[in-house]
Design goal:
The longest helix is centred in the last third of the chain and has 21 residues. The protein is built from 3 helices and 10 strands, in the order E-E-E-E-E-E-E-E-E-E-H-H-H. The chain is of the alpha+beta class and about 170 residues long. The strands form 2 sheets. An 8-stranded antiparallel sheet has the order 1-2-3-4-10-8-7-6, with helices on one face. Strands 5-9 form a two-stranded antiparallel sheet.
Length: about 170
Amino acid sequence: EQIIANGTIKEVFKTDGLTLHLSAFVPDGNNSVILEMYTEGNKNCRVDLNLWSQTGNGSRNDFGEENGICWVSRSLDTPDLDWPSHIVMAMKTLGSEGRIFTLKPSAKVYVVITLCTNHDTPDYSATAIQNASSFSVKSIQELRTSNNEWWKNFWAESLVEIGDSTMEKYY
C-alpha cells in the first residue's frame, strides 16, 4: 500500500502464526532508502537480505563488506560511452547483526540502503559506505519526522483540479 500523504510504502505479509510488517520511505535529499520491519504472532521470521546490482550491458560489478556494511557496485564505463557512470549501494542493518538474522516477535529491525555515484562525488564508494555507517535509530526517527513534515508541506501547497469534485477529494 502506498501512503501518498507521507510518501511511505507499507505492506503486511501473513502466514500461519506470523504477520510481517514492512514499511519503506525515501527521505528527501538523502540518497537513501529506509526499511522498517517487525513481526506479530508467536513465530520468529528468518530474514536473508541480498543486496545486488544488475549485471550485463558491459557493466563491471563488485561486492563486499566493510565494518558490517554490505556494499555492491556497478560501473558502466566502456570506451563507447560518452558519460561513464559508477554507483555504489551500501546496506546497514540496525536492530540485528548482518544481512542474515532472525526477526523475533515485536522486535524492530531497520535496513538502510545508501546510494552514491561518481556524478555525486569522485569518492562515491567511500561516501556511500560512510553514509550508511552513520545511520542510527535516532537519525532514522529524525528523518521520518522531517520526511512527514516535508510531505505535509507539499500537500498543503498542492492543488489538483480534474473537473470531478469527488475525485479531487482524494488529492
